Amino acid sequence: MACTRKILEVIKRKLIPNYGKQRFHTISKTFAEVNQEEASSKETHFGFETVKETEKAEKVYSVFETVASKYDAMNDAMSFGIHRIWKDIFIQRLSPTANTHLLDVAGGTGDIAFRFLKYLNVAGNLSGSVTVCDINNVMLDVGRSRAEKLGINGKQISWLQGDAENLPVDDASFSAYTIAFGIRNVTHIDKVLEEAYRVLRPGGRFMCLEFSQLNNRMLQWMYDQYSFQVIPVMGQLIAGQWKPYQYLVESIRQFPNQEDFKYMVEDAGFRHVSYENLSFGVVAIHSGFKL
Amino acid sequence: MLRKLQRVYQLRCTWSRTSIVPRRFFADVNDLNRIKFEEDFSSSHIETTRFQKFLLAVGSAAVSLLDPMRADMIAVMGETAGDTAIKYMLQKMQSDNEGQEILRNRPRINSRTVDLEKLRQMPDGTLGRTYIKFLDSNKVTPDSRLPVQFVDDIELAYVIQRYREVHDLFHTILGMPTNMLGEVTVKWVEAIQTRLPMCVGGALFGPLRLYPKQRQKYVKYYLPWAIETGTNCKFLMNVFYEHRWEQPIKELHKELHIKALQVPKS
């Protein structure tokens, strides 16, 4: 056993590099080039704009960098404070216990993480641990300073910078995965769902809170009018920025509806997938289990 | 020597045979300015519906009143609430020779277009020297002006952009500092001349934030002087400041019918 392993190691380290190096390298190089070409010519949506897939992540990063300082104030203004209720219901649906290890992806300023800890810290009994992961350092900084202001113990919460499509996390290391208002901003939703499946333990739960489509045409029309006419104006007045909020309302329209997203979650391997509409479908909570 | 002359002759011949492309280098600098403004305009312009313009006007007016430090809100209010006033300013500029020159050339005032070092070298008492002294002592920069976002017509957009950029020059010519008192005085002059709602609002509501001593001075000296200057002096937007950096301020005052304010020291 040990000697076969050693032989394999020798082969890996000495023979392949020296013997097959040139051929190996040229073959892998052409594959990489072809892949890159395909990837760089592939296009995706950024709001109603069409951009290259390689550019989308950068553009989203700069949107959130710009809005980070006024993010929470704008959330309150745009939803008239209702986003707090949505997030409260989200955590109640998750119903965490003291043994839950939560990974909150695209968690930025920490709204979900703080609510998770509050749910568990009943009667001063500190329990539960959460890792907040976000691709954007500026949003994480805002979250860190909020945690300090709230006096949250550093042992219960940790902040991780990482890409949801490629999490710097081991396999099967969390029992719950949440992503709130983040999944519509990623470039490849299917990759994010696969990563979610990878990092969850068997029995782990995937939960997603995201803007979705209303089931009533009249209400959808009113929601559209409010979104496109009022929200960018609010962004200009409160945060001094128009374009990030134009992107926000456009990206909501580009995200798949409740049923389609449910199929995508099932495709990633989750079972017992269900969704619940809040506020007539303005937001939807999708839930699935790794069984 | 002969070789040099031959070389010069050769160059002249090649230049005259060249195509249009290098001739652009000798094109009017002002054409490039015009085109540059069109580029800037299209990159910063945002499409808005009438309802959105209305919301922006009301919202920015409210925010400017509540927080006068939000310079971007004051700028947005100038653009969205001032449609009639901007058209009036455009018409006044089009009916004056110097104004027409400004509209044709579309000059911009920022640290890239104005050689601030050169202005520092100018003799005291000239417009250029006084302007740079004003910028340095009040610690302001000509780059702090936002681009126009919500005006759809490029001619009107240029008028409001020009208004924003010469605001500091108004301070210089009128001899007003950037404290609350000086700003309110300049706003009065601008309100009378340009009729912008943003200036009228600033002129009427600004004094509410003055301290009692300042308010006394304001009522006794600054306000009457501002009204008199605003009504009597020439339309300040029609002055091509970039051509007048070397002009002594006193001469400029005479030309524009401005009497400098004298506040007796009590």
TrEMBL record, chain A:
An MF annotation (GO) of this entry: 2-methoxy-6-polyprenyl-1,4-benzoquinol methyltransferase activity
Q: Which GO terms describe its biological process?
A: methylation
Question: Which cellular compartments is it found in?
Answer: Mitochondrion inner membrane
Q: How does it sit in the membrane?
A: Peripheral membrane protein
Residue positions binding S-adenosyl-L-methionine: 109, 134, 163-164
Chemical reaction(s) catalysed: a 2-methoxy-6-(all-trans-polyprenyl)benzene-1,4-diol + S-adenosyl-L-methionine = a 5-methoxy-2-methyl-3-(all-trans-polyprenyl)benzene-1,4-diol + S-adenosyl-L-homocysteine + H(+)
* Main location group: mitochondrion
Top enzyme class, one word, equals transferase
Q: Show the CDD domains listed in the entry.
A: AdoMet_MTases (cd02440)
What pathway annotation does it carry?
Answer: Cofactor biosynthesis; ubiquinone biosynthesis
- What is the E.C. number? 2.1.1.201
Q: Which SUPFAM superfamilies match?
A: S-adenosyl-L-methionine-dependent methyltransferases
Q: Has keyword RNA-binding?
A: no
What InterPro entries would the database entry show? SAM-dependent_MTases_sf, UbiE/COQ5_MeTrFase, UbiE/COQ5_MeTrFase_CS
**Record keywords:** Membrane, Methyltransferase, Mitochondrion, Mitochondrion inner membrane, S-adenosyl-L-methionine, Transferase, Ubiquinone biosynthesis
Cellular component GO terms, alphabetical: extrinsic component of mitochondrial inner membrane
Q: What does the record give as the function of this protein?
A: Methyltransferase required for the conversion of 2-polyprenyl-6-methoxy-1,4-benzoquinol (DDMQH2) to 2-polyprenyl-3-methyl-6-methoxy-1,4-benzoquinol (DMQH2).
Q: State how it assembles.
A: Component of a multi-subunit COQ enzyme complex, composed of at least COQ3, COQ4, COQ5, COQ6, COQ7 and COQ9. Interacts with PYURF; the interaction is direct, stabilizes COQ5 protein and associates PYURF with COQ enzyme complex.
Identify its protein family: Belongs to the class I-like SAM-binding methyltransferase superfamily. MenG/UbiE family.
> HAMAP family per the record?
MenG_UbiE_methyltr
Name under which the protein is recorded: 2-methoxy-6-polyprenyl-1,4-benzoquinol methylase, mitochondrial
TrEMBL record, chain B:
Give GO cellular component annotations, separated by semicolons. extrinsic component of mitochondrial inner membrane
| Root EC class | lyase
Under the GO molecular function aspect, what terms does this record hold? 4-hydroxy-3-methoxy-5-polyprenylbenzoate decarboxylase activity; zinc ion binding
Residues annotated for Zn(2+) binding in this entry: 167-168, 171, 183
Domain of life of the source: Eukaryota
Membrane-topology annotation of the record: Peripheral membrane protein
> Which InterPro entries does this UniProt record tie to the protein?
Coq4, Coq4_euk
Cofactor(s), by name? Zn(2+)
Q: Where in the cell is it found?
A: Mitochondrion inner membrane
- Tell me yes or no: is Chloroplast among this UniProt entry's keywords: no
UniProt keywords (A-Z) are: Lyase, Membrane, Metal-binding, Mitochondrion, Mitochondrion inner membrane, Ubiquinone, Ubiquinone biosynthesis, Zinc
EC numbers for this chain: 4.1.1.130
According to UniProt, the reaction catalysed is:
a 4-hydroxy-3-methoxy-5-(all-trans-polyprenyl)benzoate + H(+) = a 2-methoxy-6-(all-trans-polyprenyl)phenol + CO2
Pathways involved: Cofactor biosynthesis; ubiquinone biosynthesis
Similarity comment text for this entry: Belongs to the COQ4 family.
Q: Write out the function statement from the record.
A: Lyase that catalyzes the C1-decarboxylation of 4-hydroxy-3-methoxy-5-(all-trans-polyprenyl)benzoic acid into 2-methoxy-6-(all-trans-polyprenyl)phenol during ubiquinone biosynthesis.
How does the annotation summarize its subunit structure? Component of a multi-subunit COQ enzyme complex.
UniProt-listed HAMAP family = Coq4
This one is known as: Ubiquinone biosynthesis protein COQ4 homolog, mitochondrial
GN (gene name): COQ4
